[in-house]
Amino acid sequence: MRADFIIVGQGLAGSLLAAALQRRGRSVVVVDDGWRSAASKVAAGLMTPLTGRRFTLTPDYPALFRAAADTLSAAGALRLSGVYRMFVDEEQRGRGLARAVDASCAPFIESVTNGGGELHPALDDPFGGVLMKGAWADLPGLMSRQREALRRTDSLLEDSFDPDSFGHGSSGVTWKGLAAHGVVFCDGYRAALRGPFKDLGWQPAKGDALTLTSDAPAPPFILNREGWALHLGDGTWRTGTNWEWAALDEVPADAQRDKLLGRFRGFFNRPVRTDVSLHLAGVRPCTADSRPYLGTHPALPHVHLFNGLGPRGTVWGPATSELMAEHLHAGAPIPPDLDLRRALPC
Q1: 255-269 burial, b if ≥16 CB within 10 A, otherwise e?
Q2: Could you give the CA distance from residue 242 to residue 257 in angstroms, rounded to a whole number?
Q3: CATH of domain 2-41+140-202+288-343
Q4: pTM attached to this predicted model
């Protein structure tokens, strides 16, 4: 069996790259083991313009958002939504108000509140907040549809890929009877643990997410304050997340469950019932400089990496998958700030 490229992993990165290569007429085989707690399956899929405690708008965001909106809309996965970022204290309020009137941020701001209950009477937001123009993507739905499309074209192998098990030579790579021009690792934080790219500057971080039912009133926007809550309809919510840098496993922890539930209840100024139906944990493939890793191994010309999308993968993924596909298809250069070579050990 032959293909142009073997893609390892069918998370968000692998799904987008496979589609981008197929649009260019290239054949792919995606190898994926159905990893239940892959970071893309745990992620909220949020696209939020101002992030972090300092309400930072990265210079890349406007162009990345436009590319993501186009791609995800075409895939039927985009959901435009306001994101209400509630201030935690007066200091953060001052910083947020300054950002809200900044010329670069103003296009993404719908309104600013001065105190509790202005946007919705049930919210506990005594310091007010900023309602931003954002969106979320149905990542599980997107990846499920892509998986079925790959199956229909015999482009999916449901198997585990051991990075020590493939052969590579001057003409390409081989694995279990499959020959290809190249292999692309899109396997999330696993790339930080083993394989040809494990020595890059990875900083993986564990996160948890809950699916729950609640009688909490549902505002027509996403809630955000040191975590997020997304109403899916009919009393069903998803909420997360936390950052764990030490225990890099995929085991849901009761302590994190309780933390997320407490944060969710804290969004509201009245008691709310919560009933957890699903608790997932995954590890984000974060990088030292918070930018993805794209490109080709310097010593192995048929071995490539498209990874490290991190916590903003929904924003980064669509634009960077096109860059990576064009690199593989036509040899187009990777921008230096995204090229994996920036993180190679000296």
Answers
A1: ebbeebbebbbebbe
A2: 10
A3: 3.50.50.60
A4: 0.94
